[in-house]
Amino acid sequence: MHLNWLIIVVLLTSCHSYDVHDHYDKSELLERIKISDEGTERLRLEAESKSLSEKATYFESKILKEIHPKYKFVPKHYYSDRKDQLRTDMTSHLLAALAFKYGVTKSSQDLKLIEDMVDTFIAADKTNGYDGFLPYKVMVKDGSLVATDNETHENIYVQLFFAYVIILRNVEDENVLQKVKSHSETILKHFAKQDFVLYTHEGEEADYSDLSLTRYSLYKNRKLSLLSLLDYGLLVLDDGSLKTKLLMTRKEAEDLGYEETVLSLHTAFLNREFPTHSSSWLNFLKIYNGWHSSGNEIYKKAFMSLYENYEDERNPFLELMKASLFDSSIHESVESILSSFPLTLTSREVINSPSFKDAEFGNYVKIKRHRETQEILPVYQRPLNNFLWKRNPMIVDGNFESSGQTTYSGIDFLQAYWFMRFLRFSTN
Which of the residues 63, 76, 154, 270 could staple to 209 if both were Cys, CB 3.0 to 4.6 A apart? Predict the structure, then answer.
């Protein structure tokens, strides 16, 4: 009943197709295509100019050059004329990359940076009282870290716990581990206090963050969020009343059918598709967290049920996650796609649909659709954004009318590269 209601609502909702012809007439289009093609060729040469390890060094150096000497947070974008807000979510993924890296290098320098970043997350939490409500946008003002607004969502914690899970698996330093466990406990107390509905430090319910137990809900992703959160908590907490509450809640969730629910996280009907690539990417993170926290086979089943909808895209991050969950070999496409990463990552306009005879509109994902090709595009041919692993790699044309002044960090490359290196290192 709920699914039918959702389908009816979407079918009655105004949908939009993103098309280059909405932006340029014929007289302008040829010149825009020429500029786009020239830019793609430059990026192709860049991609071929360095090895994967050289690219990793290049991106990490650029990030660390821009980072604050004390507060190790990074922005979502870099601009030539102004500073962007520092972001909890982006920093979580840099921390995850460094934790994978440390699993390979065991470098004291990498360990120090990991500890500094954990300290920075704790400092961000302290900007509004250190109660587990972690603002996702902050800034350094007069030498101190301050929250720029009172907003966060439960998916911020999914991304942070992804990094923390990797640290718990790869870092042996007791001081770092204790900081991760202590901060995790503070966050888990915040959730448990309101029966797993996330509230701000001012007592207001956070949007899209109600993880409370329910028998009926359209939001299967939130049920996965709760299972993953609980299993992470059961891993990280010592015995006590909080752990007892998590155990009881985990049993109730299982009795309410949560584990069966998370085996169907993707829906396709006619030319409509749910959820977005970005939402599925978050679901994969939850699955990773849950599996490596508990070893519960339901997460493997949930992974494969969701993965089969994206298998043809050969997303490097998903391929590496699959290898991690199933102790399987890494698909050969991972290295070739990473090899196609250029060094210059900007919001430049890309108009390349004329180069692909099979480029047609794909499904409406929620209410939007784009032109797609049947090929997996090398990175230098794609319309770039801040994190490629949560995007469709077959979309052509994008960043319409962009001046290309926004620069991206390369954290997505670093995360996949060191994930790959870690898996290879740990199996040798």
Answer: 154
Separation of alpha carbons 403 and 421, rounded Å: 35
Q: Please tell me what DSSP assigns to residue 132.
A: S
Strand-pairing partners, residue 314, are none
Among 338, 311, 299, 312, CA closest to 421: 338
> What pTM did the predictor assign?
0.95
- Measured CA to CA, the distance from residue 413 to residue 393 in angstroms comes to 14
CA distances in angstroms from 335 to 21, 339, 419, listed in the order given? 35, 6, 12
pLDDT the model gives residue 13: 56
Distance CA 365, CA 374 (A): 17
Residues near 318 by beta carbon (within 8 Å), at least 6 away in sequence:
284, 307, 310, 389
Lowest mean pLDDT among 61-65, 198-202, 286-290, 332-336: 198-202
Nearest to 154 by CA among 169, 132, 173: 132
Closest CA to 211 of 237, 234, 193: 193
Tracing tokens 């908590």 back to the chain, one arrives at 233
User: SS3 for 26?
Assistant: helix
CB atoms within 10 A of CB 66: 12
Residue 54 token pair: 């050289």
Angle at the Cα of 244 (from 240 to 247), degrees rounded to 5? 140
**What pLDDT is recorded for position 1?**
38
Helices (H), 295-382: 297-307, 316-326, 333-339
DSSP per residue, 387-428? -GGGS-TTB-SBSTT--S-EE---HHHHHHHHHHHHHHHHT-
Distance (Å, rounded) from C-alpha 418 to C-alpha 399? Answer: 28
DSSP at 350? B
d(CA 260, CA 274): 18
d(CA 279, CA 288) in angstroms, rounded, equals 14
Query: What residues does 150 pair with on adjacent strands?
Result: none
Distance CA 373, CA 398 (A): 13
Q: How many CB atoms lie within 10 A of CB 26?
A: 7
321 vs 300: CA distance, rounded Å: 11
